[in-house]
Each structure stands twice: as structure tokens, then as C-alpha cells.
Amino acid sequence: MIDLLIEMLSYSFILRAVTVGMLVSLCSALLGVSLVLKRHSMIGDGLSHVGFGALSVAMVMNLAPLKVAVPVVIAAAFLLLRISENSRIRGDAAIALISSSSIAVGVTAASLASGMNTDVYNFLFGSILAMSEEDVVISAVLSFIVLLLFFFFYHKIFAVTFDENFARATGTKAGIYNTMIALLTAVTIVVGMRIMGSLLISGLIIFPALSSMRVFRSFRGVIITSALISVVCFFCGIIVSYAFATPTGASIILANLLVFGICCLAGMIRGKIGE
Questions:
Q1: How far apart are CA 201 and CA 266, in angstroms?
Q2: I need a labelling partner for 43 at 20 to 30 A (CA). Which of 76, 100, 111, 182 fits?
Q3: Cβ(42)–Cβ(90) under 8 Å?
């Protein structure tokens, strides 16, 4: 096992993927708890499809993918938030509308330029080979910003997550913090898409939060456990992917699914003992 790890980490492209993946997993877990509790978890799926469309257009125009995708997905997150708050279109309908439109734009752009080639496949399903040194630097900076903002505004995020109306009554500007969570989620999704793919990145947001909620009841406990589960599952998925030549994103999600099953079982046992 140790020999396998040493061999795996001796490759620079895997080391880059592990570095970025650990940061993305941590950010996804932290943001995922708030999104799941507020029933906004599908926003991650919608924004990942927007990211696919942006990355495809960037590829066709020979532009740096992250430099195009980050502002586009952030704009989409802001638009989704405004539509769900101030429009007759409900949040889930708005997500479906933007999601399907973005996929259509991405597929059309890619097919008109060069057909459905390997780059598009990587955007859909992820690839550890897709990470460049520039991507690592950008990902590290963006992930650091996400972690920093979450740390400093932890108590405000906690208040808005559990009781938004009460938070507003106490003077907290809930709209600002909802926007911040949406924007941080957008950045995290774009960064993680290169490894996980647009079809699987939302799993990094949803699974760790749901798993930890099966066992723990306190917000702090759920946050910490979710972060640990996310990082451990990512690393285990990378190892399985390297050892058995399976798709990286799918391996990571299957590791999360296994942990979710274990946590559900542990929660049931805990409930029986409590009775």
C-alpha cells in the first residue's frame, strides 16, 4: 500500500490533482452543509452545467478555461439567486432552465468547432491529466479565499442557514450572505470540474453533508465531519482510480456513496440504542 502511494505521488500530474482535489473537497464540504440545510443543494448541479458550457466555449475560442468559466459561473450563481428571490419562476425551475441551456450551448460549441472530442469528454467526466501548473495556482488561491471567508463569517452563515427570518430580524443582511455562499459555491465548482467533471462535481457538495448529518446533530460536528469525510473519500477515490484504472470522478463519488451507506447504518444503530 505504501509502495503504491509513493509510486502514485511520484507523478507530477497526480500530485497536482491531489493538491487541488484536497482543497476543493474541503471547500465543497463546508459549503455543502449550508446548501443542503437550506435545500439549495441542486444549485451545485446547475452551476456545474453552466461551467461545462463556459469551458466548452473557452476551448473553442482558445482561451484559458478557468479565466472564462469563473466569471461566467459566478454571474450564473448571482442570476439564479435573483431569479429565485424576485421572480415567478421557482428556484428548481430556474436551475433546470439555466442548466439545460448551458449544456446545449456547450455541446453545440464543441460540435461546431471540432466535434465531441477528448477535451469535451474530460469536461463532462473529469480527468486528473487536465490539471496544469497554472490551474493549481489559481485553484489554490480561490480555495484559500473560500476557506478564509467561511472562517471569518462562520457565525453569520450559521444564523442564515438555520433561521433566515430570525437572522434578518436581528439585523443580519441575509441576502448578502446567501449571495456569498452562492458565489463561493460557483468558484469551488469551477475549480473542481477539471478533476470531477461537470456531471459529478455536485456529488462533492451533497454527499459529505448528508453522510455527516446521519450521525451528528450539531452544526459544528456536521461541518467538521463533513470536511473529514470529503477529504478522505477524495484521497481513497484517487488511490482506487490509480490502482484499477477507473475514472477518477466516478471513483471518488462511489467512495462517498460507500461512506454514506455506512453513516446511514451507524445512524440507524444509534437511533435504536437511543430508544
A1: 26
A2: 111
A3: no
Q: What angle do CA 147, 260, 36 make, to 5 degrees?
A: 50
- CA 86 – CA 240 distance, rounded (Å): 45
Close Cβ partners of 260 (under 8 Å, ≥ 6 residues apart): 207, 210, 211, 214
The per-type count for the chain, helices as H runs and strands as E runs, is 13, 0
- Joined together, the cell numbers standing for residue 64 give 484559458
The set of cell numbers assigned to 197 is 467533471
Helix, strand, or coil (residue 186): helix
Are the CB atoms for 91 and 44 separated by under 8 Å? no
**Which of the residue ranges 89-93, 171-175, 231-235 has the most confident prediction, judged by mean pLDDT?**
231-235
211 close to 229: Cβ distance less than 8 angstroms: yes
> Distance of alpha carbon 273 from its chain centroid, rounded?
34
Question: Are the CB atoms for 68 and 57 separated by under 8 Å?
Answer: yes
The full set of domains in the chain, from first to last, is 2-274 (1.10.3470.10)
Q: pLDDT (tens digit, 9 = 90+) per residue, 116-167?
A: 555 667 777 777 666 777 777 877 887 788 788 878 888 888 888 877 787 8
234: cell is 477524495
**Burial, 208: exposed, middle or buried (Cβ in 10 Å; 0-12, 13-18, 19+)?**
buried
Contact (Cβ atoms closer than 8 angstroms) between residue 109 and residue 60: yes
Q: For residue 114, is pLDDT > 70?
A: no
Residue/partner pairs of 85-93 with CB below 8 Å, 24 or more apart? 85/175, 91/40, 91/43, 92/42
Q: Cβ distance 45 to 97 under 8 Å?
A: no
80 in Cβ contact with 185 (< 8 Å): no
Position 86 pLDDT exceeds 70: no
Give the angle 78-228-232 at the CA atoms, nearest 5°. Answer: 105
φ and ψ at residue 53, rounded to 5 degrees? -60, -45
